[in-house]
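Posting this for the archive.
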Amino acid sequence: MTSSSPAPDTGTGYRHELYPYSGSDEFVAGTLSFIQEALDGDEAVVVAVPQKKASLLRAEIREDDTVRYVDTGRVAHHPGRLISAWQEWIQKHVSEGRPVRGIGESPWDQVRSAAESQELRYHEWLLNRAFAHGPAWWLLCPYDVAGDTAALTEMARCHPEIRTDGRTVPCEDYDARAPYTFVPLTDPCDPYDEFRYTSGDLPALREKIAACAEQHGLAGRRLRELHLAATEVATNSIRHGGGQGVLRTWGEERRLICEFRDSGYLEDPLTGRAVPTATQVGGRGLWLVHQLCDLVEVRSTPDEGTTIRLHTELPE
């Protein structure tokens, strides 16, 4: 097997590599090569890929103390939970001081909405920021390019390195100079309800959400979780977003969406995506929101303020 070239100088101990492939055979060949390189270097490997892909690799390399296959089911469709998941998956090896590699592929062929696809790509860019000053490790991101070259360009912007012909080289399309360019949020679906809130309006806000949820058949535990998440976001609007905000609610693609707008600004795009530390000031509320909702979209600029959309899947 061909060994990878020396690591390009990316200014960080974290290496983030894109592996474009086409079909199962190329997936297995490229990822097995990456795993074998790790084993030859006495490195641990964490494999976080969809179950069918994991089965292909298990048939070639079994799990042991060196190679670990993790269950991605609880986070695969939740981009906001993936960074904290990777922190958890590599923690054992990092604490032992052992070099570690990861293989991470999102279930792109099972993406349930355009919003989820966009948030998964945004997660790829945020990984560079999340681990820039953390432990040194190497993450390979397989990506099936069959019929989707435009999306490959977007993925390349997020990865400092790319694997081609069995070698690791700098990715010419990688853009580290400025934060990832947000795809604008889509317009709310008509009809939608709008409610302006300020201090003292949280009970009324929850009633508005409950009324919309009832129209779409959402009740029980999922509604209680949405109420808790909505209360966290609205409270942040009141405390940090100018003392007031605007709630919009509507149904779209089998989801109930609650959108919150205020004049505040979230300076750190990683807020809510990593597990809060014991000494951390702020960020716990948004982390809880990511755990309670099926998808969370955040758009925040100093000029336009902050928009947060909470997606909750509706029952069949």
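Residues 111 and 117 are 6 Å apart (CA to CA). The chain has two domains: 14-170, 193-313.
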